[in-house]
Amino acid sequence: MSDIVVPGFKSSELIAELNKVFDGYSAEERAKLIKQVNGVFQFVIKNSEGKEETFTIDVKKEGKVTRGKGAVKADAILSLKDDDFVQLATGKLNGQKAYMSGKLKVKGQIMLAMKLDNVFKSINPKAKL
After folding, report:
1. How many domains does the chain have?
2. Residue 46 within a domain
3. In a domain, 100, yes or no
4. Between these two residues, 85 and 115, which has the higher pLDDT value?
5. 71 falls within a domain
6. Residues 6+ apart with CB under 8 A from 116
């Protein structure tokens, strides 16, 4: 089991899956995604028990996922509940609606958050933000 998976956080399983996808990319595929997205996302996720975990998705330099704050400063920090992240990542929750309804809070480059659909599509081709 990956060190990214955290018991009590369903979102961590999706983030670990994303990490597997990144690891499986060829250098060209990774470079293409990095060129498309060019950002570092930090997710602050709160589970149903009120505990928080932080995950960083670097799609700017390395194309990798880490638990906790990454080595590179995040361009966008997104805060949301565990269940909302799962719905967002699987395409069941629209990112703009989540933001407008207050389910998703963004600090930093909000326009960069719009590019997250490219990242989530790599684990779920039907995902649409």
Report:
1. 1
2. yes
3. yes
4. 85
5. yes
6. 37, 41, 95, 129
Of residues 56, 54, 42, the one with CA closest to residue 9: 54
127 is a domain residue: no
CA separation for the pair 84, 74 (Å, rounded): 21
How much is the pLDDT for 129? 44
- Tell me the residue range of the domain where 46 lies: 10-121
Q: Tokens standing for 82?
A: 């565990």
Using alpha carbons, select from 63, 16, 59, 24 the residue that is nearest to residue 41: 59
Predicted TM-score of the model (pTM)? 0.90
pLDDT at 95: 87
Q: Provide the pLDDT confidence category of residue 125 given band limits of 50, 70 and 90.
A: low
**Mean pLDDT, residues 87-105 taken together:** 92
- The CATH number given to whatever domain includes residue 93 is 3.30.1050.10
- Whether residue 39 is predicted with pLDDT greater than 60 in this model: the reply is yes
C-alpha torsion sign, points 38, 75, 59, 105: negative
